[in-house]
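re the bet — no i am not wrong, look at it urself. input seq straight from the record:
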Amino acid sequence: MPKLNPATQAARRSHILDAAELCFARAGFHRTSMQDICKEAGVSAGAFYVYFASKEDLISGIAERDRNKLAGELAELAKSPDLGTALARLGAHYAVEEPQHKRLMCVEIGLEATRNEAVGKIYRSVDRFVLESFEQLFARAAAEGRIKPTLTPEMLARVVAVLGDGMFWRRAVDPDFDIKSVIPVITAIVSGLLNPQETVASGAAAEKVNGAQS
């Protein structure tokens, strides 16, 4: 049997992860069997075990994929001239746009992290990554003079994470919750915490205009 090329292998691995997310959201971590995931993915057990040895392996794969996705999103967010608006868009993506099963799956993994040491280790590593990434983002923005928060970057990251967790959890447990009416309020709170400033470049441009007019 010919060996699959890396792109095909990556696509099949991602397809199995998609199936695992659906199964975990639908039946929970413990009630989901490997056979359930194979059936959802439409693959044989032999093909499945080429990529994953256990359900913990699947959670590790899901976490790695989500971490890479967030890293790319934060890299783009860091370039935004309006950090508050960009953060609001990111929050809306996770709280509104992502399908409900993604939220249920994350809640299920979070609960499993409280009683499964292996899953707990994965969960906490992702949590640390998220907090450290936001801390670095805020520290960079502050150093560039784009924001002037009264909180340290570390505390600012924690508060933003708590607000994000709250929106995410509410949408997971109550899909009818009117999150769109809340997002503008959360955006205003985060903007107040960030205390956005005019950049040096925009300030210099304004001075040039004022000088030309005088």
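see?? The radius of gyration is 21 Å. told u. also The chain has a mean pLDDT of 88. so pay up
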